[in-house]
Design goal:
This protein has 466 residues and is an alpha+beta fold. It is built from 16 helices and eight strands. It has three domains: 190 residues, no CATH class; 76 residues, Roll (Nuclear Transport Factor 2, Chain: A), CATH 3.10.450; 108 residues, no CATH class. The longest helix is centred in the N-terminal third of the chain and has 35 residues.
Length: 466
């Protein structure tokens, strides 16, 4: 029996450098999985809900999101629909309006109320308000909050970032175990060993999903509160930015401004050097523009429907017409329209983004399953389902081989950083690039060395090498 076979079956074996690495990687994969699985299952589940939000929400809220188009009746002007919203919620501030996504869909107005944000839905043909929803309490809205911060604010954001860092460890160690242990798994499968088929399926699925997992982690890092903020600060100090820097766009939009829309991220602005577009109140004597004007101007400038119009915040504000660019961030473009004369104050689009912002925009689109049409969509859906499968089969394999005594059944092994310089070279840059990983890694190593090894009960429980 090879050392790898012995390691996988848990039998005693002579010490060797290869065996030590295999057992050490197996141990780190084991503990990283226990840290990561609860979070990645939550992220995969909420990610699926968010992915299918345009199918789910109209089914759950058909009374406000869907309408019937009367024969021969054209839609009411958006300004008239806006008036209906203001009459419906006279004390609210209307932030933006999004055109109907189809002939059977309602117009959506995002408003700020004393009770929080609301999405108000208007029948575009009758011009009547159908109702309002709190975007944070819908199924997809709750999924977004859980996906981003576990509904725990800054603490939840840090928990997700730490789990993401350790998910990298889980993926990298998983690849090592997959390739190093492939012969042993094949022999155990041929011998009909218990759990051999499940172990092989787990390994093969993980080998495919690992690449996607690593990509999703990297593409999601710009959103994180620790790594993302510091990366933005570094980029800003170098004259660049992770995000677009159109100061005329909303920096804190409500839910109607989907993540797929340009500039719809609540992040620190990069350089702060761009001139903020503004209207000229002295032009009040001229024709006053409205949301319909903004739509018409946006259409003349080639913006795609359905557009979102961000309303002026004050007398000097502008209408910001944001073109639809759901599947192609390269089409992202905003036209700022003077609220009095209706002239174009400025435009800002993908071609104006800093180089890093272009990369982030493309990464976000891929992350959300919308960059390459149905291919990206279904690949993301299958990936999320695969993550759930891996998160079930991993603990199931542990449960089948768990010890009967007072121990968690972790593989015995110590990470041989001193004996394997190449491994240290790999771990050190990763810890520097991902500070939260470096901090938690140091905590784990100190805990292992000064607590687990010195307390007999804990040493036996965690199967720690003396």
């Amino acid at each position: 029996m090879t050392s790898v076979e012995q390691a996988e079956t848990g039998q005693a074996q002579p010490r060797s450098r290869g065996t030590g690495l295999f057992r050490a990687f197996w141990r780190w994969h084991f503990y990283a999985s226990f840290l990561v699985i609860p979070v990645v299952v939550l992220l995969a589940t909420t990610g699926l809900i968010y992915l299918f939000r345009f199918q789910i929400e109209p089914l759950l809220h058909a009374d406000v999101m869907k309408v019937e188009q009367p024969a021969g009746l054209r839609a009411q002007p958006y300004s008239a629909q806006l008036d209906a919203v203001r009459q419906y919620l006279p004390d609210a501030t209307v932030v933006s309006m999004t055109e109907p996504s189809g002939p059977d869909r309602s117009t959506v107005f995002s408003v700020d109320t004393q009770a929080g944000p609301r999405d108000v839905f208007v029948d575009p043909y009758e011009g009547t308000v159908l109702g309002a929803l709190n975007p944070d309490t819908t199924l997809s809205g709750g999924a977004i909050l859980l996906h981003g911060e576990l509904m725990m604010g800054r603490v939840g954001d840090f928990v997700i970032e730490v789990a993401a860092c350790w998910a990298i460890v889980m993926a990298l160690t998983g690849y090592y175990l997959f390739f190093r242990g492939r012969v042993a798994r094949a022999r155990r499968r041929a011998a009909g060993a218990a759990g051999a088929v499940l172990r092989s399926r787990h390994g093969r699925t993980g080998a495919v999903l690992g690449v996607g997992l690593l990509f999703l982690i990297v593409s999601g890092l710009p959103w994180t509160g620790f790594w993302g903020e510091r990366a933005q600060q570094i980029a800003s100090s170098q004259g660049s930015s992770l995000w677009s820097e159109d100061h005329g766009a909303l920096s804190d939009p409500t839910s109607t401004l989907d993540e797929s829309l340009p500039h719809s991220h609540n992040v620190p602005w990069g350089l702060g050097e761009n001139e903020v577009p503004s209207s000229d109140p002295s032009e009040k004597g001229r024709s006053t523009a409205d949301v319909d004007t903004a739509i018409a101007v946006g259409q003349r400038h080639g913006l795609r429907h359905p557009m979102t119009i961000a309303l002026p915040a004050d007398d000097a504000g502008v209408y910001s017409a944001i073109g639809y660019a759901f599947q192609d961030p390269g089409q992202e473009r905003t036209v700022h329209v003077d609220q009095y004369g209706g002239r174009v104050v400025s435009t800002y689009g993908y071609s104006d983004y800093p180089a890093l912002a272009k990369v982030v925009a493309q990464g976000i689109a891929l992350h959300e399953g919308r960059r390459l049409g149905l291919v990206n969509f279904w690949a993301t859906a299958l990936f999320c389902a695969g993550v759930v499968f891996m998160s079930v089969t991993g603990p199931l394999m542990w449960w089948r081989r768990r010890p009967t005594g007072p121990a968690v059944g972790a593989p015995r092994g110590r990470l041989p950083l001193r004996a394997t310089p190449a491994l240290a070279v790999l771990v050190a840059p990763l810890a520097v690039f991902l500070p939260l990983f470096g901090i938690t890694l140091a905590v784990v190593l100190l805990l292992d060395r000064f607590v687990l090894r010195r307390v007999p009960t804990l040493r036996a429980w965690f199967n720690v090498t003396p």
